[in-house]
Design goal:
2 domains, rod-shaped
Length: about 300
Amino acid sequence: MKQLEEIIQQYLEKRITSKEAADKSIEKIYKNMSYFGIHDIDEDDRSDFITFFYSKLEQIIQFYNPTKSSFRTYLRGSISSNLMTWKKVKYKLQAKERVVEDYVIDEYTLNIADIENEYVTDQSDCNFEPDNSVQVQIPSEMKKKLNSFCKKLPESTKLMILALKSVNYINQSHIHKLHQLTGIEEKEILDIFLKLQGSLYKKRLLYSQQKEYQNRSYILKKKSMLLLEKTSENSYFYNSLKKAIEFYDKRWKFNTERLKKSRLLTPSCAEIARVLGLEANIVRRIQHFAQAQLSDIQ
């Protein structure tokens, strides 16, 4: 810690600038995280805080009064107070996120009648008017292939399995056509769709969290890159920033790949089976068959 006092002395004697003093000081802080009380912070959060503190360090040095305390004590107090400020901002953002999550949960727990009314209102904007004079039919080739597989399973159930895989793209027109094809009441079809939509809430929430991790990694990488431009290449902190950039870049690429593999808008076979009261294996077989046999039929 003696080196910190030497650094501030050089600054007070105007042998180095406040920027140079900040660069040298952040190195000592980085090497002595335990002394400054930041060693037990999560790695991502610690890097974020050090970046936050470094942006203020030059001004902190300029306000230092050597008659009141040693520089290391002054720095320790500054880190402590800034850590509290940083945590308040962080917790405030987390609280806002929880409020949003709670709101979404409340929306998903609305009673089925309210959701149905909202759904129908949305569809009415499309000026949909069912034409009962036109009877929808399955193309003969598709019907033949569909009925050749899982013969004990009703055709209406097979059609519902295939339709539910695209639950996020179904509108009132599709529901009306499904009613004509399957004989199932539109209200019952709508109830099934809404139940499946509700089961997808956790999947959407997980996707949002993964997206947040991806954005966070990208922002921290960019922050570190900006700091690197302002840091001397001979500085210990410079090498630490380079490692941080590599770390955040790998984390960002990893999260990006996870998002690509995420099936946000596609319900799983198990979720479809649950709302239809079937075994997941049956749903899986129907979908695999459809992909293999019906993909060329429009």
